[in-house]
Amino acid sequence: MPGMLTEIDHVAIAVNDLEAAIAYYETAYGAVVEHRERVERDGIDEALLNVAESYIQLLCPYDPSSTVAKFLATRGEGMHHIGYRVKSCAEVLERVKAAGQRVIDETPRPGSRGTTVAFIHPKGGFGVLVELVEE
After folding, report:
1. Which of 28, 97, 122, 124 is the most exposed place for a label (fewest CB within 10 A)?
2. Pairing of strands 5-14, 44-51
3. Where in the chain are the domains?
4. What is this structure's pTM?
């Protein structure tokens, strides 16, 4: 049976200043913002910088009660989560739950740029918050 994770979709980095983070990646690496979006449900503004077939996702909270704001308050800036592309978010999420792992999203939900996503709790993933991303 082939693996259910098809590619790395993105590496998410929590930042306090989205414009400064974008400028850093543009200046230091020549990275270009491919997509920007305010994700109301999560209380964040995001910028996606293209890296080959994947992205660096810069996350900056605008809502002080958002999970990213809480992350920044306790851990500071840095890697927040990794997103894996999957063919079926629902199928992988059910498999993870059937394996007894904790999930954050019980069912898939809309994500940015028209994707379907679900988050897997870091306690079951060796301390890494995982996002399943279906395009």
Report:
1. 28
2. unpaired
3. 5-134
4. 0.94
Tokens of 9: 């979709």
Which of 43, 68, 72, 58 shows the shortest CA–CA distance to 10?
58
pLDDT in tens, 66-105: 999 999 999 999 999 999 999 999 999 999 999 999 999 9
- Other CB atoms within 10 A of residue 110 CB: 10
Write the class of the CATH domain 5-134.
Answer: alpha beta
Q: Tell me which residue of 66, 81, 83 sits closest to 117, measured CA to CA.
A: 83
Q: CB-hemisphere CA count at 13 Å for 95?
A: 10
Q: Which DSSP string corresponds to 80-132?
A: EEEEEEES-HHHHHHHHHHTT--BS-SS-EE-GGG-EEEEE-GGGTTT--EEE
